[in-house]
């Protein structure tokens, strides 16, 4: 499973944190508020009950008191309900003894033993408080106070607090999203600079003053870029130095051997053979140095320009003294291609040289939309050699059969590098009817 | 026998190239420094100059510039340096061609022959019969003369050959490749040769090289000469 993005994770963490915090605060405050309110209400109820009980006590003190009258005389609101139990008899203001059922048994027993008490109950689906106060004559005065109003208030409070908690956590997520966007913004500049460097623009640097908090990243990035371009420069300088140091003695060799070669007829047989060997090897060495330097530079981007592909192929054929009618143009092939002319010429030239050396000569150069193919008349390339034939210094069996051949072993890898520089590739298949078919794909733009 | 001046500081290269060029039928004046080369060319002018770029004292670029002040002799840079900067700088200094060491002697001889053919074509001074006119620009191919506003303009032989090639196809676009093969006889060559020579020519035959009126670039195709 793919890991969620940094922004998603940070936002989620913000949301969870905000939720935990707000839920905690909400819970604690709800508990505090509800406890306080209940306690307050209870105290008030108890106080009122004692007051009423005192009035009842006074009333009961007289001779033959009318209990119903006494209860009626009490000043109670809508949410209070009074009861009197006396000598096993329940009295209430209104008819219907049902209310007495609401008084829990333990409370009755406790009150009967002469002790006052209070207990919370549920009555008609509402919270209520029963307060019991013993009165004269082994009676107990009860008041049932409805707590429904308070309960409804607390329910509303809980609802409001929950809504607030949800909103706070949503706000936390939004803040996380917003904050990460700001925090990640400087990284976009880093990403852009890194891709600039990957594309070969080694002068790309980050502005160290742009984001003080990312100073370390900026300075390490710039340091890396400096180091990279220094190394690249050193490599290039090395290649240039090697090039110069190899080319100069080779020039002497090339000139001197051509002087000797001219006089081969006047040399004895063995000397002439030795001179022939030297001349061949100098030529090969020369080609090797050129190919090596070409490979050393092959990572440079292709210098694309418009080129008439027919003329290009014609020039390469004529430079190899090959007949122009080898070229076959597929229908639908555009005339002008967008390519690095020099590199395509060299790649095609190398394929032709390869065909001449090892493939019995080219039989066709096919030009199609986005590809060039060179067919040869040789035995083809066996499967086991195909995977590595474009590698450096790898010679196919045909080249080995010629005692190392006169090639450099780099020709086909240069072809592959040049194709890759265009975003294409070099490949090898069988030509229908025998022989090898080397192909260069050059993506059309 | 035609003479070649070889300016090369590496003793072994100088010696071996001189021998090889003599085998190819050239009389070779080989010297080790630019100063000696300039002196030698004053005393005994050669038909072609081969010059290395990295020389002790005066470097190859300056040597080419000094030679060009008085001489339209074909100059070929023979250098181990092959980066674009050096090639363009050498050509801009006034060289006609550029070869990278190690160059096969046969290849070098072929280059020299191509340059000499160009030289001869321009130098065959028969009475001027043809005058190709492009507005205020006049070209006399047989006389090897270029006039701008009626005044003679000094061009090198390669520049002249390039100008004639364009002048013989008035208003027609010639691609860099066509010019390379017709003027330098390269089948596959470096198009920068053409570009740098066109740039040099513009400084001579245009009132403002930055805004060419006669020798114009046709984007993606090549160059053409127009009145």
UniProtKB/TrEMBL annotation, chain A:
Q: What is this protein called?
A: histidine kinase
What is the protein's major site of localization? Answer: membrane
Checking InterPro entries in the record gives: HAMP_dom, HATPase_C_sf, HATPase_dom, His_kinase_dom, HisK_dim/P_dom, HisK_dim/P_sf, Sig_transdc_His_kin-like_C, TCS_sensor_his_kinase
> Which Gene3D superfamilies has this protein been placed in?
1.10.287.130, 6.10.340.10, Histidine kinase-like ATPase, C-terminal domain
- Its transmembrane ranges are 12-33, 157-179
Q: Does the keyword Kinase apply?
A: yes
Which transformation does this protein catalyse, written as a reaction?
Answer: ATP + protein L-histidine = ADP + protein N-phospho-L-histidine
Record domain HAMP: where = 181-233
Histidine kinase domain ranges (all copies)? 241-445
TrEMBL record, chain B:
Q: Specify the OmpR/PhoB-type domain's residue ranges.
A: 129-227
Ranges of residues in domain Response regulatory: 3-116
SUPFAM superfamilies given for it? C-terminal effector domain of the bipartite response regulators (SSF46894), CheY-like (SSF52172)
Under the heading Gene3D superfamilies, the entry gives:
3.40.50.2300, 6.10.250.690, Winged helix-like DNA-binding domain superfamily/Winged helix DNA-binding domain
InterPro entries membership: CheY-like_superfamily, OmpR/PhoB-type_DNA-bd, Sig_transdc_resp-reg_C-effctor, Sig_transdc_resp-reg_receiver, WalR-like, WH-like_DNA-bd_sf
| Pfam families membership | Response_reg (PF00072), Trans_reg_C (PF00486)
Query: Where are the 4-aspartylphosphate modifications?
Result: 52
Per the record, the coiled-coil ranges are none
**Protein's recorded name:** Response regulator transcription factor
């Amino acid at each position: 499973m793919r890991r969620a993005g940094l922004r998603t994770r940070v936002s989620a963490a913000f949301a969870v944190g905000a939720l935990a915090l707000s839920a905690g605060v909400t819970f604690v405050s709800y508990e505090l508020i509800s406890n306080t309110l209940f306690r307050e209400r209870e105290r008030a109820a108890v106080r009122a009950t004692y007051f009423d009980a005192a009035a009842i006590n006074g009333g009961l003190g007289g001779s033959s008191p009318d209990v119903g009258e006494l209860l009626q005389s009490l000043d109670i609101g809508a949410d209070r309900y009074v009861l009197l139990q006396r000598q096993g008899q329940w009295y209430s203001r209104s008819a219907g003894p049902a209310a007495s059922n609401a008084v829990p048994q333990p409370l009755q027993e406790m009150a009967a033993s002469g002790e006052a008490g209070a207990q919370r109950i549920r009555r008609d689906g509402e919270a209520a408080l029963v307060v019991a106060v013993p009165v004269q004559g082994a009676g107990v005065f009860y008041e049932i106070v409805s707590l429904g109003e308070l309960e409804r208030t607390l329910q509303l409070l809980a609802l409001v607090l929950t809504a607030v908690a949800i909103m706070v956590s949503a706000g936390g997520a939004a803040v996380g999203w917003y904050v990460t966007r700001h925090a990640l913004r400087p990284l976009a500049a880093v990403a852009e600079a890194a891709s600039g460097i990957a594309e070969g623009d080694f002068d790309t640097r980050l502005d160290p003053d742009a984001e003080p908090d990312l100073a370390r990243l900026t300075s390490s990035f710039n340091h890396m870029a400096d180091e990279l371009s220094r190394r690249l420069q050193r490599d290039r300088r090395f290649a240039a130095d090697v090039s110069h140091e190899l080319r100069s003695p080779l020039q002497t060799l090339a000139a001197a051997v051509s002087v000797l070669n001219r006089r081969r007829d006047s040399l004895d047989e063995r000397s002439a053979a030795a001179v022939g060997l030297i001349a061949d090897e100098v030529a090969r060495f020369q080609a090797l140095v050129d190919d090596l330097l070409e490979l050393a530079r092959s990572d440079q981007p292709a210098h694309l320009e418009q080129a008439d592909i027919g003329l290009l192929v014609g020039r390469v054929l004529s430079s190899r003294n090959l007949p122009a009618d080898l070229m076959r143009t597929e229908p639908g092939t555009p005339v002008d291609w967008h390519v690095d002319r020099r590199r395509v010429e060299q790649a095609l030239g190398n394929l032709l040289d390869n065909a001449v050396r090892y493939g019995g000569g080219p039989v066709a150069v096919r030009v199609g939309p986005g590809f060039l193919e060179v067919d040869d008349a040789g035995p083809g390339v066996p499967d086991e050699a195909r995977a590595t034939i474009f590698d450096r210094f790898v010679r196919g069996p045909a080249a080995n059969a010629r005692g190392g051949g006169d090639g450099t072993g780099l020709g086909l890898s240069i072809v592959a590098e040049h194709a890759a520089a265009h975003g294409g590739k070099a490949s090898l298949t069988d030509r229908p009817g025998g022989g090898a078919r080397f192909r260069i794909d050059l993506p059309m733009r | 026998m035609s003479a070649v001046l070889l300016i090369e500081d590496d003793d072994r290269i100088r010696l071996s190239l001189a021998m090889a060029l003599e085998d190819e039928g050239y009389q070779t004046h080989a010297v080790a420094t630019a100063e000696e080369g300039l002196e030698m060319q004053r005393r005994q002018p050669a038909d072609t100059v081969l010059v290395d770029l990295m020389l002790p004292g005066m470097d190859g670029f300056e040597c080419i510039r000094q030679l060009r002040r008085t001489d339209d002799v074909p100059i070929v840079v023979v250098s181990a340096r092959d980066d674009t900067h050096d090639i363009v700088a050498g050509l801009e200094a006034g060289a006609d061609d550029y070869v990278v060491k190690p160059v096969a002697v046969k290849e070098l001889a072929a280059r020299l022959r191509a340059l000499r053919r160009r030289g001869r074509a321009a130098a065959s001074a028969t009475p001027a019969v043809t005058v190709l006119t492009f507005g205020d620009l006049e070209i006399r191919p047989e006389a090897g003369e270029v006039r701008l506003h009626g005044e003679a303009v000094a061009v090198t032989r390669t520049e002249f050959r390039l100008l004639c090639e364009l002048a013989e196809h008035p208003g027609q676009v010639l691609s860099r490749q066509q010019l390379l093969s017709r003027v330098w006889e390269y089948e596959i060559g470096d198009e920068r040769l053409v570009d740098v020579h066109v740039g040099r020519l513009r400084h001579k035959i245009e009132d403002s090289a930055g805004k060419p009126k006669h020798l114009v670039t046709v984007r993606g195709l090549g160059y053409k000469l127009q009145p």
